[in-house]
TrEMBL record:
CDD domains reported for this sequence: PcpA_C_like (cd08347)
InterPro entries named among the record's database cross-references: Extradiol_RC_dioxygenase, Glyas_Bleomycin-R_OHBP_Dase, Glyas_Fos-R_dOase_dom, VOC_core
PROSITE patterns per the UniProt record, alphabetical: VOC (PS51819)
Keyword tags: Dioxygenase, Oxidoreductase
UniProt GO molecular function: dioxygenase activity
Signal peptide: none
Protein name per UniProt: Ring-cleaving dioxygenase
Pfam family, one: Glyoxalase
Length: 314
């Protein structure tokens, strides 16, 4: 029997200016900066996590922001559009808010839903959709009331160099169910209430180029450590070669690249972001894994100073 993920755990992307990244995702989109740490493989680069009040799986977008990063090109082998979900009746609020910050928006329809599409400050493709499923956010910041705030991910649009293979992986490896198809897209659904709808363009895409404004990988949820170990074996049985289990401090991870070119991760729900700092002060201090603590002064000196601040409309 095919295992089933409940949906997206997190999405990780590249960015340039760290302060501009914080200003967009915390100041404009109103997400909480739940963890300020470093790229464990490159400690002179931040790893920033934004999500709901707790950084719950299904709400987390993460960035490696590095000043001067070359611009990427969105294309095949990437998450093409990251989808956020808001409560019913909130889309007009978000259209007014984004245009108030001089952010260009457009409305498009897929599968009888209306999406408000725009890009972040780096050109990363984003969209917002209204859905009733999923708990409302309890986080209110920068003039966004909690009843209009982003709940988390609605899902994603995957740009594949081999759409048939990607769609097969979604179904036969991750256990998503195909629920719709038209002349442009196929739609798949995971079992969770949010971060559960994946749309795949039927036309194969030319390869994208990684860099600022592009997604590095998409991570899918594993319930716990035992479930995670089972996922590793299940992926291997399907002919992939997943990595060993890697401790990412706030979750364990395995990685594999599906045949449409997209880097997939499977990540555990536990232990979460309150592992090393109080829930009420998440994201306020630079958190380092223990093996980097002795180098804290040098690491902090090499990082661009950032602060979470409210943003004023133009």
């Amino acid at each position: 029997m095919t295992k089933q993920t409940t949906g997206i755990h997190h999405i990780t992307a590249f960015a340039g200016n760290p302060q501009a990244n914080v200003d967009f995702y915390a100041g404009i989109l109103g997400l909480r900066l739940v963890k300020k740490t470093i790229n464990f493989d490159a400690p002179d680069v931040y790893h920033l996590y934004f999500g709901n009040e707790a950084g719950s799986p299904g709400t987390i977008i993460t960035f490696f922001p590095s000043p001067g990063s070359p611009k990427g090109e969105i294309g095949g082998g990437q998450v093409g559009i990251t989808t956020y979900v808001v409560p019913q009746g909130s889309l007009d609020f978000w259209e007014n808010r984004l245009t108030g910050f001089d952010i260009s928006v457009k409305k498009v329809s897929r599968f009888n839903e209306v999406f408000l599409q725009f890009t972040d400050n780096e050109g990363l493709n984003l969209e917002i959709v209204e859905r009733s499923e999923g708990a409302d956010s309890k986080w209110s910041f920068s003039g966004i009331p909690a009843d209009k705030a982003i709940k988390g991910f609605g899902g994603a649009v995957l740009f594949s160099t081999n759409a048939e293979s990607t769609m097969d992986t979604l179904q036969t490896v991750l256990g998503l169910t195909k629920i719709a198809q038209d002349d442009k897209y196929a739609r798949f659904q995971a079992t969770g209430e949010i971060a559960n709808i994946i749309d795949v363009p039927l036309e194969n895409m030319e390869w994208g180029i990684g860099g600022a404004g592009t997604v590095h990988h998409i991570a899918w949820r594993a319930n716990d450590y035992e479930d995670h170990a089972e996922w590793q074996k299940a992926v291997m049985r399907k002919g992939y070669r997943p990595t060993q289990i890697i401790d990412r401090q706030y979750f364990n991870a395995i990685y594999f690249r599906e045949y449409g070119g997209i880097l997939f991760e499977i990540a555990t729900d536990p232990p979460g972001f309150a592992k090393d700092e109080p829930a009420e002060s998440l994201g306020e201090k630079l958190m380092l894994p223990e093996w980097y603590e002795e180098h804290r002064a040098q690491i902090e000196a090499n990082l661009f100073p950032i602060q979470v601040r409210e943003m004023n409309k133009s």
